[in-house]
Amino acid sequence: MGHPSTLSFRGTVVHGDKRGRELGFPTANISIADHAALPIDGVYACWVTFPPATEQHGATISIGDNPTFDDVTDRRVEAFIHDFDGDLYDAEVEFTVHAWLRGMFRYESLVELIEKTAADVAASRIALALPPQLP
Ligand SMILES: Cc1cc2nc3c(=O)[nH]c(=O)nc-3n(C[C@H](O)[C@H](O)[C@H](O)COP(=O)(O)O)c2cc1C
């Protein structure tokens, strides 16, 4: 069996540590039912829908244990949904991975993490305007 043509997974929006807002990137923390469906840790450009709605939103997501923060020990999925400003708590979300951007890193300062995240979102918007590049 070859590669699946798409890589998708579902989850539910839960409350995170609320650091994202302070960092300037409010992220939706996603509780994933089936962790086996996740790709490897890293940062990805994704398309997101809120079933049963079918409208697609662009997003930049991070999968990993946020190594910049020693107090995070579990594997998390966090989504910065582009141009979106709504209350998503308890919403069901479906992600389709469009492109791999990079691995997870431990940054020495919050400024570095914020700068890198801004660059990720810019790269993600470009990737989403191009054909899919699956990992
Ligand atoms: C696009 C993007 C890239 C990220 N990259 C990293 C990373 O390389 N290293 C890291 O420790 N955390 C990374 N994060 C996770 C942030 O640490 C996390 O979103 C932030 O701490 C807010 O978490 P909270 O919503 O649980 O408060 C990334 C988050 C996003 C949205």
From TrEMBL:
Report the residue ranges that make up the Riboflavin kinase domain in this protein. Answer: 6-129
According to its UniProt record, which reaction does this protein catalyse?
A: riboflavin + ATP = FMN + ADP + H(+)
Q: Which SUPFAM superfamilies match?
A: Riboflavin kinase-like
Keyword Acetylation listed? The answer is no
What the entry lists under Gene3D superfamilies is as follows:
Riboflavin kinase-like
Top-level EC class as recorded in UniProt: transferase
Q: Known EC number(s)?
A: 2.7.1.26
Task: Output the GO biological process annotations, alphabetical, semicolon-separated.
Answer: FMN biosynthetic process; riboflavin biosynthetic process
Single annotated GO MF: riboflavin kinase activity
Q: Which UniProt keywords apply?
A: ATP-binding, Flavoprotein, FMN, Kinase, Nucleotide-binding, Nucleotidyltransferase, Transferase
Give the signal peptide as a residue range, or say none if absent. Answer: none
Name of the protein described by the UniProt record: riboflavin kinase
The opening ranks of the lineage are: Bacteria, Bacillati, Actinomycetota, Actinomycetes, Micrococcales
